Amino acid sequence: MESKFDLSGKIAIVTGAGQGLGKVFAKALSEAGAEVFLMARNLGRLEDTAREIGEMTGDKTHVCALDITDERSVIAACRTVMDAVGRIDILINNAAVGRSNERLLDESLEEWNSIIGTNLTGTFLMMKHVGKVMTAQRSGKVINLGSMTGHVAMRNPTIGAYDVSKAGIECLTRLMAGVWSEYNVTVNAICPGYYMTDLNQDYVREHPDFYEDSLKQIPLKKWGKPDDIGGIAVFLASAASDYMTGEILVTDGGYTVW
User: Fold this and answer.
1) What is the pLDDT of residues 35-79, one digit of tens each?
2) What secondary structure does DSSP assign to 60-83, as a single string?
3) Which of 23-32, 103-112, 151-160, 169-178 is predicted with the least confidence, judged by mean pLDDT?
4) Is the distance from CB of 248 to CB of 17 less than 8 angstroms?
5) Closest by alpha carbon to 68, among 103, 22, 135, 2?
6) What is the distance between the alpha carbons of residues 120 and 170, in angstroms, rounded to a whole number?
7) DSSP H/E element including 234
8) Do the Cβ atoms of 71 and 121 come closer than 8 Å?
9) What is residue 135's DSSP assignment?
10) Does pTM top 0.90 for this prediction?
11) Which positions are annotated as active-site residues?
12) In contact, 192 and 248? CB cutoff 8 Å
C-alpha cells in the first residue's frame, strides 16, 4: 500500500511555498519522494523553505520566482521547470492573498480586483500553462486550494472577494476535471477550514475572542494542525487517487456540517 503514496521520480510545483500551508505541502511532497519546485514572489522565504526541506529529507528542491498575477512570469516559471527536468507531474495551486476582513459593502473595487486577480485569475493562469504541459504528456495531477469560505456562507460579516474567489476555484476545478479527463489529468481541490499556521497563530494571539468563538462552530472543537493537511495533498498527488477527479475535499473539523 505504501507504494501507492510514493512520489519518487515525480516533479511537483508548489506555489506560495514560502510560508503557511504552501510550506506544509512542499515538505509533505518532498517527504513522499517528489522533486519540488518552490515558487513565490519572496525568494528569501523560498530559500528558507528549501533549507528546511534539505535538513529534513535531504531531497532536491528548486527555488523559482513567480508572480501568479503576471502571465509572463507564469510562462517563464513553467519554462524553467521544463528546461530543467522536461516534465511536470504535480501542481499545487496554493498561492493566494487572504481575507480582507471587510464587509462586501465596504470593500473597495481595487481590493476586490486584487483578491480576485490573485486567487482566482492566478489559479487560472497556472492551470492554463501547466495544463498545456500535462495534457501534452497525457498525465498530471492538479490540486487547487479552495476554502470552506467558498463552500458555505460564514457566520461573520467579513464576506467578500475572498469567499467569491474560493467558490470560483471550486467551479474551475470541476470544469477542468471534466475537460482534462481524456488526457489522464486529474483536477481536485482541498478546501481547508481553520489551521494553526504561523500566520494564524499571530492572528489568534491578537484576536483571542475570535478564536474562542470559532471553536464553538467546529464540531471537533479545535483548529487543524498544519501537518494534518500535508497527507491529503500527498494522497491527491499520488497513484492512490488515480480514479478521483473533480472532487472538493473540505477539511474543516466539521465546520460546514452545521
Assistant:
1) 999 999 999 999 999 999 999 887 789 999 999 999 999 999 999
2) -EEEEE--TT-HHHHHHHHHHHHH
3) 151-160
4) no
5) 22
6) 10
7) helix 226-237
8) no
9) H
10) yes
11) 162
12) no
